[in-house]
Amino acid sequence: MKNRFFELATRQAARLLGKPGRLKTLLLQFAGKVNTVKWGDVRIQAFREKFLVLGRLLRAYVVGDYREIPWKTMLTLVAALLYFVNPLDLIPDVIPVTGLTDDFAVLVWVYNAMRLEIDKFLAWEKAREVSL
C-alpha cells in the first residue's frame, strides 16, 4: 500500500510494538473512535465486527494470551489502528461523510491481508471459550 500516512503509521507502530502500556493506550483510543462511528448506515455495519476482531486480536497479544502471530503481521495491524485513530491522514476525519473512508479502507485492507492469521485467532478464541 502506497500511502505516506500509512508509512508514517508503520514507523510509529515499530516503536510501539514492544511497549505494552502504549499499545493499551492505542486500544483505548481505537475503542473510543469505534464507539463514535454511526454504525446505523447499512453500508458500514458489515465492517464493525471486522474492526472489533482486530481490536480483540491486539488486546490478546498485548496481555500475552495470544502470541501465535508473526511480528510483521502485528506491525501491520498496529499501523492500521494508528492510522484509524489519527484524525489527520489521507482524508482528514473532520470532513463530513468521507472523512472515515480512507480509515475504513485501510482497516479492511489489513483485515483481508491478515485473513489467515485472523482465522487462526478466531479458532483460538472459540477454543478458549469452550475450555472456560
Short description:
The chain is mainly α. Helices cover 73% and strands 0% of the residues.
* Gyration radius from CA atoms, angstroms: 14 Å
Distance between the termini: 40 Å
* Count of domains: 1
Strand content: under 5%
Structural class by SSE content = mainly alpha
The largest sheet, given as strand count, sense and whether it forms a barrel, is: none
Helicity range: over 70%
Topology, element by element:
Blueprint (H helix, E strand, L loop, with lengths): L3 H13 L3 H17 L5 H21 L8 H15 L15 H13 L1 H17 L1
Helix pairs in contact: 1-4, 2-3, 2-4, 3-5, 4-5
Outline the structure in words.
The protein has 132 residues and is mostly helical. The protein has one domain (4-131). 73% of the residues lie in helices and 0% in strands. It contains six helices and no strands. It has helices spanning 4-16, 20-36, 42-62, 71-85, 101-113, 115-131. Helix 4 packs antiparallel against helix 5 (101-113). The longest helix is centred in the middle third of the chain and has 21 residues, at 42-62. The mean pLDDT is 87.
